[in-house]
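Appendix B, example 12.
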Amino acid sequence: MIAAESLWREYRRSRDEKLKHELVLAHLSLVKYLAGRLAIKLPPYISQEDLESYGVFGLLEAVEKYNPDLGASFKAYAYSRVRGAMIDEIRRLNWIPRTMWQKIQQLNITREKLQKELGDQVTDDTLAAAMGIKVSELHKLAGQANLLAVSSLDETVPVACGEKVHLGDIIADPLSPDPLDIIEGDEGRRMLAQAIEELPQKDLTVLSLYYQEGLTLKEIGKVLEVSESRVCQIHTRALKRLRDKLEQVETTVKCKPVKQRN
């Protein structure tokens, strides 16, 4: 205890960063403890790790402002600071009213209970009856719950042929020229035609059979006497080559100097 008081007084005197780091590390368990307790009622878009990050900021502030001469223990002083930092951040991120959040929690709890009792096939009528609300109210509440579903742009999603891409890569950039607008120009059409001509013959065949003849990948595989997965690889490779060429066109459009009107 004496050693701890001596450490605090030395930090108050010197404000040495090494001592501050040592004090923070010594009390990280308090952050984890509080995060674990608050995590029980967290909104789905905030993880316990997020809470711990917010709590560390509160702990840093507590270390900087704590005065051992006032008689209170640091643990008691830091408890309110760390917990307050976590709750403030939860409130800042939680954009729905408290009453709505409570209803959504009730919906999730009721659904889980019914699924355990009746299996996965829980109808809207059964769920609404269990909650004592109308089916229309249930649909409205479910819609509000869906608004809380937050996805990471780094999350991968499946596209054609089972290929997976990052969600951020398929979101349209409002500041970027529309590819259709680009290829509508004479230069764009010329470069696209040139890009198609430069594709290997097998790539051209796959694109032609798929987009012009309307064959499935499995049917194209039978025509070319290769597996469906191989056709998928060729199709993906061909689209990537064309996409790269269109990006070159887009860069050319962006960098092209604007003609000054007289």
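The CA atoms of residues 153 and 169 lie 8 Å apart. The mean pLDDT is 77.
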